[in-house]
Design goal:
The chain is mainly α and 445 residues long. It has a domain at 186-323. 84% of the residues lie in helices and 0% in strands. The chain is built from 21 helices and no strands. It has helices at residues 3-8, 20-27, 31-66, 72-98, 111-114, 116-130, 134-144, 146-154, 157-177, 180-197, 201-213, 218-234, 236-246, 253-276, 281-299, 301-316, 318-340, 345-363, 365-385, 387-400, 403-444. Helix 3 (31-66) packs antiparallel against helix 4 and helix 10 packs across helix 17 (318-340).
């Protein structure tokens, strides 16, 4: 690959799948990056100045050695010569990471721009093998002790209040995002489908049989009879008028009046006796009727079929469908109001539950162990199931970076420290050259 291709990464662009936001984030070059670049330039100047210093020292030492200045000139010359070699070698090594030294197409140079994609693949594999393995995740989470920390955190009233408030905010947000028409349609369909699929007659029959057995219906009978008695006392004329209105036209009016009065008195007597006598025959007849009806609801095919037809007719009425659909609006308003009110029963119960959970987790080692197991299992499932996707995210993101911008940003972050390699190479090279020269002179002497 030529230098231009390496710099811009044009040969890899068709294979890039990273999001544009990731590329833009890497390409952005802010004030912090410019300040790092200035630091890199200062360190380059320092390393270059040290190379220039040993080069000047080498020239002066060689001149002094040629003019017979003494044995010291040889030591200085050897040290400066080795220092130059070390400085140049480390300059080449550091420069080869980011670009081609002197623009020459030397193999295995400009490593970062030319090997960017391979580095991304290696980074993804490294993260997957060393950070996303089930053993590492489980061991790390077990050492953290999520259950104990979470229990202690939730046991604090302030933290419980914060979680309750966040949950209320999230609930309000979710209810706000949902469109009432969509939810109403779903609720209406779900309720209708469930009601149509479930036969209700046997359940109603069992419930009615239990109510009759427990004498639960007697209060209803007492209430109805008592209200009927009071109504007959207050509206006797209505009964008489009803009887007179239904009498034949040829009967005398005084006869119709007497018949009406007699009907009213008999009705009032019957209702009064039924109200005051728990063992009244009419009550017993009603009990037998309810028992028989409950049994038929459970076992009689015709009765169950009639109930199902009635259920279908009721569910199919527009008023019932509108009622089912409108129920969501009432429930939504109730939930939103409860979520917004800090003193609502909903929020108080949630807060109390969180505090209770925190106290239990703090005191109960078995519960903490269960929570730790749940968290570890969930985390292990995520990393093992989506390990390839996570590492692919790293690989694709690195592949989407612009090679030139990536090189500049990496150099801005680590270039200053890399210049110390050049400085250390100059110093260590000088010391090594001096040592070698000294040993060779000693052996030669």
């Amino acid at each position: 690959m030529n230098r231009q291709g390496a710099g811009r990464g044009t040969e890899r662009q068709p294979a890039v799948h990273a999001p544009a936001a990731a590329t833009a984030a890497v390409s952005a070059y802010g004030e912090a990056d410019r300040e790092r670049r200035r630091g890199v330039r200062r360190m380059k100047a320092t390393a270059g100045g040290l190379l220039l210093l040993v080069a000047v020292g080498y020239v002066l030492a060689k001149w002094a050695q040629d003019t017979g200045a003494g044995a010291w000139a040889g030591y200085v010359s050897a040290a400066c010569e080795a220092g130059m070699v070390g400085a140049l070698a480390d300059w080449f090594a550091v420069t080869a990471l980011f670009r081609r030294p002197l623009g020459l197409p030397i193999p295995h140079t400009a490593i970062i721009p030319t090997k960017k994609d391979q580095l991304g693949v290696s980074l993804g594999e490294f993260v997957g093998e060393n950070f996303l393995s089930s053993e590492v995740v489980r061991a790390r989470l077990h050492a953290v002790g999520i259950g104990a920390r979470l229990g202690a955190w939730l046991a604090e009233p302030g933290h419980a209040d914060r979680v309750t408030a966040e949950l209320a905010t999230a609930l309000r947000g979710a209810l706000t995002v949902l469109r009432d028409s969509d939810v109403q349609a779903v609720v209406g369909e779900a309720v209708t489908r469930r009601a149509e699929a479930q036969e209700i007659a046997p359940g109603i029959g069992k419930l009615l049989a239990r109510i009759v057995e427990d004498r639960g219906h007697t209060r209803v009978v007492d209430l109805v009879v008592s209200r009927a008695h009071d109504w007959l006392v207050l509206h006797g004329d209505s009964v008489v008028d009803a009887v007179q209105g239904g009498a034949p036209g040829w009967t005398p009016r005084f006869v119709d009046r007497r018949v009406g009065d007699r009907v009213h008195r008999e009705l009032l007597r019957f209702v009064t006796e039924m109200r005051d006598m728990p063992e009244h025959p009419a009550r017993g007849a009603l009990d037998r009727f309810l028992r028989d009806f409950a049994r038929e609801l459970q076992s009689d095919t015709d009765t169950r079929a009639r109930v199902e037809r009635l259920k279908g007719e009721v569910l199919g009425r527009p008023e019932v469908q509108d009622l089912i659909a409108s129920a969501w609006g009432a429930v939504r308003a109730m939930i939103v109001a409860a979520a917004e009110d800090e003193q609502s029963e909903l929020r108080l119960r949630v807060r109390a539950s969180l505090l209770s959970l925190g106290a239990r987790m703090t005191a109960d080692a078995r519960l903490r162990a269960k929570v730790d197991g749940w968290v570890e299992g969930a985390a292990v499932y995520v990393v093992t199931t989506y390990q390839d996707e996570i590492t692919a995210l790293i690989t694709d993101t690195v592949a989407g970076w612009d090679a030139e911008q990536t090189t500049r940003k990496i150099e801005a972050h680590i270039g200053r420290d890399l210049q110390f390699i050049r400085i250390n190479g100059t110093v260590v090279g000088s010391l090594a050259g001096l040592a070698i020269y000294t040993v060779s002179r000693a052996v030669g002497g």
